[in-house]
Amino acid sequence: MTDTLAENGTVDGRRPPAQLFRDLRTSADGLGAREAARRLTVYGPNELTRRAARTWPAQLRAQFTQPLAVLLMVAAVLAWLGGAPELAWAVVAVILLNAGFAFAQERQAERAVEALAAYLPAAARALRDGVVVEVPARDLVPGDVIELAEGDRVCADGRLLDGELTLDLSALNGESVPAARTADADFAPGPLLEARELVFSGTACLTGLARAVVTHTGMHSEIGRIAALSQRGHTGPSPLERQVRRATWIIAAVAVAAGAAFLPIGVVSGLGWAAAISFTIGLIVANVPEGLLPTITLALAGGVRELARDGALVKRLSAVETLGSTTVICTDKTGTLTENRMRVARLWLPGAEVDPADPRAGPLAYAAALCTTAADAGDPTELALLRHAADLRVPVRPADRDRGRRALYAFDARLMRMSTVDGDEVHTKGALESVLPLCTRVRLPGGEAAGLSPEVRAGLAAATDRYAASGLRVLAVASRPAAGLPADRASAERDLTLLGLVAMVDPLRPEVAAAVTAAHEAGIRVHVITGDYGPTAAEIARQAGIGRGGMRIVTGSELDRMTEADLDSLLARPGEVVFARSSPEGKLRICEALRATGQIVAMTGDGVNDAPALRHADIGVAMGRSGTDVAREAATMVLTDDNFATIVRAVDAGRRVFDNVRKFVLYIFAHAVPEVVPFLIFALSGGAVPLPLTVLQILAIDLGTETLPALALGRERAEPGLMSRPPRSPSSGVIDRRLLLRAWGVLGVVSAVLVVAGYFWSLWRAGWQPGVPVGTGSALHEAYRQATTMTFAGIVACQIGTAFAARTEHASLRSIGLLSNRLLLAGIAFEVAFAAAVIYLPPLQAVFGTAALEPVHLLVLLPFPVVVWAADELFRWRGRASRSVGTFGPARAAAAAKR
Ligand SMILES: Nc1ncnc2c1ncn2[C@@H]1O[C@H](COP(=O)(O)OP(=O)(O)OP(=O)(O)O)[C@@H](O)[C@H]1O
């Protein structure tokens, strides 16, 4: 039995408390703050050391061993062997630059995600100096006494001192059946995990309330030993990253194949082996989109950071893109649609309906306030009851209440009620349909009891419906004298006398209605899944604007009776559904049914029992303020403000990030055509037309002038109409046919025509005819250098036009404003300065084979950006026009109807 002692080098938690206190040098009152601090330095923080994270040298090394870098290295070696050392050096520079860039971006993305972990501190309630205080979970030390309640994540291994719990041990043993734990269990030999007096770090407390003394923390805990947690939070590549990786490879393969095909053509055309090889290599280097992947990772990380500022903490990079394709939001009501600030609005006493200030409500208010566990903070429903009792001059002080409490049957979301035994009275409060069956009498306002007559029942039903119709939450309150202490919950909750109903307002959050409208605009359906009464929830939903296309109310029991096919057809019909009195199982079923029909589901939840649904949803959304640790851990996204509107904002951000990734893909792809066409002309003319663009000029464009504008496109603001489009189908890739058509067919072709025209114009102007030599020493050599410079400058000019065109996918440039992306303007200024340096600075002229352009050249270049942009503007305009009248309109309507 001393196996754990030996292995951990610490204490065996299965000893009786008195012995544990001695071994751990502590007591039932826990540790003092100073002693705890001292132990923290001895035992170390209560954390699982991560699986050795990659250190930065390893991360940097990885940049050089990744396949694209290796491909470039092969190119460099070939260039060297082919007798083009300058090119070899240039390629090496490209490799170094790229690696540095990717490395920096990866680090930054990683930091963004790590910073989020800090936003989500796990907290524990520990006794320090005899009082319960909230401490960061990492500060727990052996000897601490902690309090555990429903919804808490257990943060350390320990032994129960008092109380009872049920635990979800699935993180440790994979079993989802809740395990009962009690302080009074006797020692029984057997596996540690089955010891009924022990609790374990990483598990979740499903029900109950207990205190435990901490025996093991950090890596000494069971979960630390299994090191299961180190698997968590592992982030694989997102679907977007996978797609882009695949696309990168395809493009690289095409570039290599094209390069290989051009090599013999170049030689046959009289370019000579050395020049042909170097050109081939240049073509490959230029067209392999090395920087794409890290840039996308960075864009996602930027999205994550932005969301965090907006109140939505996303735990995985990939969630950002999933958010963008959300088609259904399942939200709960209290606290998410509403403010979760309750106030008692009306009271119903048998035979009378009164205002909150009416003294006749005193006994009801007092009983309701006694049946609470909230103190200064806690359940807003209970805080409202405590406040109301105080207003009526029958105050209940939490400290007095707790002192007089003899038993507590905590609020159970399934039973929808809670009960307490205070002094010699039982108090029960909860949903009417849950409490009424336990009642045998009512208490009349005069104080005397009467039977539950049909009239009273009718009055109750009428009052409940009236309150619900105006969106009030209704609680029934009952009590009875208790001579002895009831043996269990069932014997406490019977023979009750109904005191009356308390109706509370919980106002709608002001920003919710606009957010619901925005969701509808964006083609997203909103269903409400709530524990509350149907008509109440329906009224709140109506106020929020939910129910477009018709609203249906489905209660928990109706849902239980539905077959899967019924549920599918309910969800397939147009309109929105309010699922009332729902159970966690119901939530999971709804989630599964929606996902089975291909919907992308964002689902909110805050309770322990919501965890399965949160895990199952595409985007599980937990509440940062009111939610439980368990829900937060299961969720993909945590809302720091618990606000429905934040979900919609997150969808918006998700769509924007995806869009912006497409923008720079478009921009980067567009230059391929004007870079390849000049080479084709040279090859197809059999060398009669001299090569219009040198390799180093291509590199100067792809790795110099274009970098900053491309990055700036990733920071573009949301395009108008972004949230009035239907959700993107999750199967549609980031690179689709329309994008390629635009990049190559429109922007690329127009650019190529302009660039080639500029080249020929410049040559002819100097008196060149096909076949006339332009090599070093020839009469036309200077004119030829000027002409290639013209090609280079032409591509740069066209890419400026492309950058402005790429800013929107559908909208016109006018609608977003020419100057609204400052970063892009700065990027273009850099582009122009870089190009000017290459063209006009003599040392660079020598490297890049350029010659200074004359004013007349510049005049010819001036319209290039405008023409390229205008061609794309026309393309987008046609797209918009055909969408509003043509194919897209009905398609969209059909899609909306299907949804
Ligand atoms: N503290 C409480 N004590 C007793 N009964 C409660 C308490 N809180 C809620 N109830 C009852 O249980 C019902 C269900 O509550 P639950 O917390 O599951 O859902 P909700 O807060 O109404 O809505 P949502 O699921 O949207 O958050 C409530 O309608 C109410 O009748």
TrEMBL record:
The record gives the membrane topology as: Multi-pass membrane protein
The UniProt catalytic activity note for this protein reads: ATP + H2O = ADP + phosphate + H(+)
Domain of life (superkingdom): Bacteria
Output a single Gene Ontology CC term carried by this record: plasma membrane
Q: May I ask which residue range the UniProt record assigns to the signal sequence?
A: none
Give GO terms: molecular function aspect only: ATP binding; ATP hydrolysis activity
Q: What does the UniProt entry say about where the protein is found?
A: Cell membrane
Matches recorded under InterPro entries: ATPase_P-typ_cation-transptr_C (IPR006068), ATPase_P-typ_cation-transptr_N (IPR004014), ATPase_P-typ_cyto_dom_N (IPR023299), ATPase_P-typ_P_site (IPR018303), ATPase_P-typ_TM_dom_sf (IPR023298), ATPase_P-typ_transduc_dom_A_sf (IPR008250), ATPase_P-type_domA (IPR059000), Cation_transp_ATPase_P-type (IPR050510)
Q: Which residues cross the membrane?
A: 64-81, 87-104, 247-265, 664-685, 691-713, 739-764, 784-806, 818-841, 847-871
Q: Which residues form the Cation-transporting P-type ATPase N-terminal domain?
A: 11-84
Entry keywords, A to Z: ATP-binding, Cell membrane, Membrane, Nucleotide-binding, Translocase, Transmembrane, Transmembrane helix
Give start-end ranges for the coiled-coil region(s).
none
Q: Does the keyword GTP-binding apply?
A: no
Principal localisation: membrane
An example of a Pfam family matching this protein is: Cation_ATPase_N
**Family label:** Belongs to the cation transport ATPase (P-type) (TC 3.A.3) family. Type IIA subfamily.
Q: What is the name listed in the Swiss-Prot or TrEMBL entry for this protein?
A: Magnesium-transporting ATPase
